[in-house]
Design a protein that fits this description.
By secondary structure, this protein is α/β, with parallel strands linked by helices. The chain has 17 helices and 11 strands. The protein has a 9-stranded mixed beta sheet, sandwiched between helices. It starts with 16 loop residues before the first strand and ends with a helix.
Amino acid sequence: MSQAAPTRVFEPARYATFRVTGWTFDEPSATASLSYALDDELRFTERIELPAGAPPLEPARRAALHAVLDLLHQVAGVSYYKAAAPEHVTVETGPLSERRARLLTDVYVQGLGEYAYRNGLDLASRLRFAAGPGAADPSPTPLAPTGRSLVPIGGGKDSVVALETMRAAGADVTLFSVGDPTAIGATSAISGLERLVARRVIDPLLIRLNAEGALNGHVPVTAVVSLIALATAVLHGLDEVVLANERSASQGNLEHAGIEVNHQWSKGVAFERGLRDVLAHEVSPDLGYFSVLRCASELAIARAFARLPAYHHAFTSCNATFRLDERRRAATWCRDCPKCRFVTLALAPFLAPADVASIFGADLLDDPAQTPGFLALCGFEDHKPFECVGEREESVAAFRLLAGDPRWADHAVVRAARERLLPAVPDDFGDPATVLALSGDHEIPGRLMAAVHARLGA
């Protein structure tokens, strides 16, 4: 009787150095190959397939594209670094400027904050990218404006509000996605706008190592997607990448090893400003990158989305619909996760119960079994859930609105919040008017502010 082959075991502690080794770009196929290694033993190559059909590259755009790809190579390495989280990181493609070293340190430390927390690691005390002696002075490349904007779309309510805000401002909008999940295709189709689709192909070795014991966890994927979008913008002749990240993305979940752990760090304003700084000084001063929703809370964005009924049965924010494993991918809302609960809670004050139930396929706010999960969004646990959900104040504000709305007041979860939650929080915590007001802390160009206020205001 034959014996089963022994199971391989990956030992992260064996590796001393993560190496960012090199990248290439094939113009005819618009494909970038990004290479990495753990010591001299394990080598990885990720493939980024940018959207085809771009016009021939002029010298200025080629220089800017290569500068973006160089930064993408360094940032995307975070997915492979986390397999072992070794003590040292080396960038073998040339010395880093102080500005770039600072951004990369933040991406790997702050961006891996949740991963470090879950794996019991202290990256903040030991992981640093060093500026290299002999680093060349940055030489950003001027780019001729084209008047076109690239808006990444994720299939959720936020990107819908972003694209419609840009359209209302008179922008020439092209949509963008990495991959083509169902919800992205559905919302794109309703918009009627052109969409450019890129593809990210993870090295199969990393997937195998994950099954053999590699360290794993959440990575700052928005940082990677942003740079793929920026590369697409340069390649296809667009001026800017316009994101749909709200102000609550900047709020952390908890403290660990001296840093604020934020599941959404690469959606937050600190990363946005760090990347804008590097782009302006080392890529091109004419390549824009900002979130058009940064001034708004999730609750204000939900109010704006409630006014866009054409999208209500096409969008999906539930992570179960975006799983990489197609066998585990849900067709629609799972109705049992923090994301489903928060989107339900955010939309409910601005829609009738029947309309909300039609969107989600159930009336979650009238299901007593959902009460603990909904109250957790308000801080009835140790920390905010590790999901892309809004601030605690937003959830409390939504419950204040629902408790005073006769359409919702007798729903089981709303009744529990009125009896157990609202008496326990200060009267000024989660004030709806304050939560719905727009902030001045953003990088939105002045030319767009009238459309932003019209879309996101009362």
